[in-house]
Amino acid sequence: MIRVENLKKQFGGFHAVDGVTLNIAKGSITGLIGPNGAGKSTLFNVIAGVHKPTSGQVFLDGEDITGLSPDSLFHKGLLRTFQIAHEFPSLTVRENLMMVPAGQSGETLWSALFQRKKIREEEAQLLKKADEVLDFLTISHLKDEKAGNLSGGQKKLLELGRTMMVDAKIVFLDEVGAGVNRTLLNTIGDAIVRLNKERGYTFCVIEHDMDFIGRLCDPVIVMAEGKMLATGAPDTIMQNEAVIEAYLGTGLKNKAVVATEAE
Questions:
Q1: Are 234 and 202 in contact (CB under 8 A)?
Q2: What is d(CA 138, CA 164) in angstroms, rounded to the nearest whole number?
Q3: Residue 95: other Cβ atoms inside 10 A
Q4: Measuring CA to CA, which residue among 97, 207, 216, 201 is closest to residue 159?
């Protein structure tokens, strides 16, 4: 579904993404891991149109989408969430969901003045869809709560719900577990798996929680210093010496050696 070819992004003399080539298969939940500063979020930003690449190409279903704006990509079904949730804090949870679909009739002055029936019908449909999303995510009890009052994990669920209000093809989730307690993280994980299996969503997930990655993702892509380091199944990645060195740290490697010697 997503093909990235020799993608580079420089900020001055710093190579944040340095010649990355990868594929994200349709229907997969692909994990993207690596140490802080590896270039993971920058890679997401370039694919999702937040930053234009210095060079290289990005394809969605064979179409060259390199450098397209986030708005254009949104209409093509490519969505991206952020480490810090971007909710409308003064609106309710349900209203946040209803704001997502583009091209609503109520957005134009002409329709607001002369097509009120059409607007009411659209709002009724959006309300129904929003309630279905809330039911799916098991947060219907929060529908009338101001989004700004939600916990970090609840805001991440709301962001996931926002992707369900449109016909998303692929969703890039950036550190969905950041600041989220274990119970809510499990709820988020369950929702991702259900969306993948029941609705055909494709996901690419940045996350530092390896248990979460191991439960959800296959394959897992590892980045370090802006480059691709390894790709494979979670178990294989966890045994890769280069990954242990770069991502998990030499300390863990040394502990394993010490434990072996002690035996």
A1: no
A2: 14
A3: 17
A4: 97
CB 199 within 8 A of CB 165: no
Q: How far apart are CA 174 and CA 204, in angstroms?
A: 9
Q: How far apart are CA 50 and CA 38, in angstroms?
A: 18
Q: Name the nearest CA neighbour of 28 among 198, 160, 209, 204.
A: 204
User: In a structure prediction context, what are the per-residue pLDDT tens digits for the chain, which is 263 residues long?
Assistant: 999 999 999 999 999 999 999 999 999 999 999 998 999 999 999 999 999 999 999 999 999 999 999 999 998 999 998 877 788 899 999 999 998 875 555 554 445 544 567 667 778 889 999 999 999 999 999 999 999 999 988 999 999 999 898 878 999 999 988 878 889 899 999 999 999 999 999 999 999 888 999 999 999 999 999 999 999 999 999 888 888 887 656 544 444 443 333 34
Is-contact 2 60, C-beta < 8 A?
yes
Task: Report d(CA 17, CA 262) in Å as an integer.
Answer: 41
